[in-house]
Amino acid sequence: MERDLKLPNFLAGGRSFLTLGTFVLALTAVFGIVPEALAHGVTHGDKGYIQEITGVHPIAFLYLGAKHMMTGYDHLLFLLGVVFFLYRQKDVVIYVTLFAVGHVITLLFGVIIEINISPYIVDAIIGFSVVYKALDNMGAFQRWFGYQPNTKVATFVFGLCHGFGLATKVLDYELSPDGLIANLIFFNIGVEIGQLLALAAILIAISFWRKSGQFMKHAYGANGVMMMLGFLLMGYQITGYVVS
Fold first, then answer.
1. Where does residue 109 rank: exposed (0-12), middle (13-18), buried (19+ CB within 10 A)?
2. Is residue 118 part of a domain?
3. pTM of the predicted model, to two decimals?
4. Is residue 4 situated within a structural domain?
């Protein structure tokens, strides 16, 4: 059993939904005040450095990949949703591997053949993935439609979407063709290192939360907040697409 949505205290956690929702309203204000800080794009310093170098640079691209994942709040929110109700190490490995394989495929494929998709559209889809996973964790699909989508397939498919998001950022670097493949591989390794570091932090935090005895009490509310953050990300990116 990968998760348990039927514990009696689970729905009782919905009482914390409005309180936690106040936090989301505060974040809405922050998004409006500092959009550049939360744009999850390529910094001018990184872009300028990459445009000036040629050849293979393992350390630089390992760093950039790890930095991108560690500061990628949208990727981390989805990753949190994926492992939220996973208790066994085996299940964590399976789901995280499916997610990683998905974004490796589209990251490499998207950059090599230069698939130019609006980063606003891709990031809006990534925001939707957060909404989807939160609803899945809340058991919404089973209640609404009497059907539970395959969570492994969904994780892999959204991994593909997240990979396109990474690809749009890499294309924005305007990499030199000299050493492109090797640098892409190092960038991807960096992404995986960043993902493992972020995952370790998430699992440690969740482990302490579960041991506190408050986990199931607030699980519904926490996923409600996650869902609203996903909608917030979607709205932010769609607005950017419209006004750009």
1. middle
2. yes
3. 0.80
4. no
**Residue 3 forms part of a structural domain:** no
CA dist., res. 17 & res. 25, Å (int): 12
Q: What is the pLDDT of residues 106-164, one digit of tens each?
A: 988 888 888 878 888 999 999 999 999 999 999 999 899 988 899 999 999 999 999 88
3-state helix/strand/coil string of the chain: CCCCCCCCCCHHHHHHHHHHHHHHHHHHHHHHHCCCCCCCCCCHHHHHHHHHCCCCCHHHHHHHHHHHHHCCHHHHHHHHHHHCCCCCHHHHHHHHHHHHHHHHHHHHHHHHCCCCCCHHHHHHHHHHHHHHHHHHHCCHHHHHHCCCCCHHHHHHHHHHHHHHHHHHHHHHCCCCCCCHHHHHHHHHHHHHHHHHHHHHHHHHHHHHHHHCCCHHHHHHHHHHHHHHHHHHHHHHHHHHHHHC
Domain range for residue 101? 11-243
Q: Cα-flanking dihedrals φ and ψ of residue 230, to 5°?
A: -60, -45
Q: How many domains does the chain have?
A: 1
Give the pLDDT score at 95: 95
